[in-house]
Amino acid sequence: MSEKKLLSFHARVVKDINEQLVLKLIQEHEIISSSDLVKITGMRPSTIFNILKELSAKSFVSFYGKGESTKKGGKKPYIWTLNKDAAYVIGLDIEVGEMTTIILDFSGGIIAKKNIKLETGNTVDELAANIINVVEGITAENNIDKEKILGLGVAFAGIVDYQKGIVIMSSVLPEMNFPLLEKLSTLPFPVMIENNANAAAVGLKWNGNDKTKRNYLTILVEIDKNVSGLGIGIVINGELYRGASFSAGELYPHLPTLKEILSTIRSRLIESETLKNYASFLESIDIELLLAAAKQGDEIAKLVFSMIGNIVGQTIAPAVALLNPDTLIITGVISELEEVIVESVRKEIEMRVISITSNALNIIVDKYHHYSVAMGAASLVLEDYFRLPTVM
């Protein structure tokens, strides 16, 4: 490469990096003035002006208005924000017998969400066909222009090689090492695949976790009539940790199913207005029924959630002791009963780790509850899009 071409190439790289930096700063601050962009980046005002002009021409950012002048007076600064309608991302959470999907706009706001009960399929081809149908369905229902879709994030219950798009192991299909990304290549936009607990952790990093918290664990709990599981998403120093074989956080514990938990207090179900009629049919009680009863103040239903919280606390206490995170975030359906779950999890952890560890631990629930994983899956695409390029 000639010196002239090399200089031209370097100029383009610098320009692209500067443009991406400004876009990311606008995304992080939600609204920010051009003068603040100058201060933060150290770029010249003319450079910032040209970048904003170009981003605006591409419809990525919008003029928000004028801010207040400084105490010294002078011109009022121009304020900028992301154009939320510039693009969209889709997130999909795949579990046994259901798919939960969500659409976010360019700024991360929720456009649509939907939970669909369906047989996911017996083969990878059937699974891929169902994924494509669900994605096409929700985009059509919400009149989303496919040309504006940045990508699809798919969160899977199992161990996932996100780099190759291969599901190494999962309870959704009996097959192992199946190339799900390859099977979704007919979609007209990029696809990213990730483990469900990891996706939830990225979602919280992107949208919802206190930005000062850089070391946290996301606890994804799935307990229903005949299904139980627990996965941990690990974020260390602000970065997702997947492990050498993409299985970090897969404790693979034996968790009782909801039916097994209920069987231990079968005799007390008569005390519950909602559950007393199910004492002989425990298999008919699902997590949604139990959650609705608990929200209405049913003490026996609350007791069951307290028992679930105890089991979760016992299971994750070793991980808390080992990693000493500053925050523990509980996601999934059970997080909707926040006070009961947090209290019971905290009690079990405090019994099993030293006080200096438990006292520093903040336990919260994710505000998106059942949609936490789908939100995280969509956030995978946004995080990748707004990531600053690495200069080698």
How are the secondary structure elements laid out?
Blueprint: H1 3-29, E1 31-33, H2 34-41, H3 45-57, E2 61-66, E3 78-82, E4 88-95, E5 98-105, E6 110-117, H4 124-141, E7 149-156, E8 158-161, E9 166-170, H5 180-183, E10 191-195, H6 196-206, E11 216-223, E12 228-236, E13 239-241, H7 258-263, H8 287-295, H9 299-323, E14 327-331, H10 338-352, H11 355-358, E15 362-365, H12 372-386
Parallel strand pairs: 4-7, 7-10, 11-14, 14-15
Antiparallel strand pairs: 1-3, 2-3, 4-5, 5-6, 8-9, 11-12, 12-13
Plain-language structure description:
The protein has 392 residues and is α/β, with parallel strands linked by helices. It has 12 helices and 15 strands. The chain has helices spanning 3-29, 34-41, 45-57, 124-141, 180-183, 196-206, 258-263, 287-295, 299-323, 338-352, 355-358, 372-386, and strands spanning 31-33, 61-66, 78-82, 88-95, 98-105, 110-117, 149-156, 158-161, 166-170, 191-195, 216-223, 228-236, 239-241, 327-331, 362-365. The strands form 4 sheets. It has a 5-stranded mixed beta sheet. Strand 5 (98-105) and strand 6 (110-117) form a beta hairpin. The longest helix has 27 residues, at 3-29.
What is the compact description of this entry?
This protein has 392 residues and is α/β, with parallel strands linked by helices. It is 40% helix and 23% strand.
